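Data card: per-record layout.
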Amino acid sequence: MGKLGNISGKEAMKAFGRGGWQTMGQVGSHLVMTKEGQRANLSVPQHKELSVGTLRSLIRAAGLSVDEFLELL
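The structure for this 73-residue chain is written out next.
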């Protein structure tokens, strides 16, 4: 299991993009991402550093494991 930490919202957005997620728009400081065939939308905060709990929640909602996400980084 990889280590999650010091990952910005911009880095997370790029990693999810490599996983097939597309940016649909922005609401405040959060980017909304969608993926064909997925029921959930991702709301990625554009902060300098994401908390580990928030990042784990986004990874789980995207249907990825932590290791799969770290490979996308």
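Known properties of this structure: The chain has three helices and three strands. Residues 14 and 73 are 8 Å apart (CA to CA).

See the next section for split statistics.
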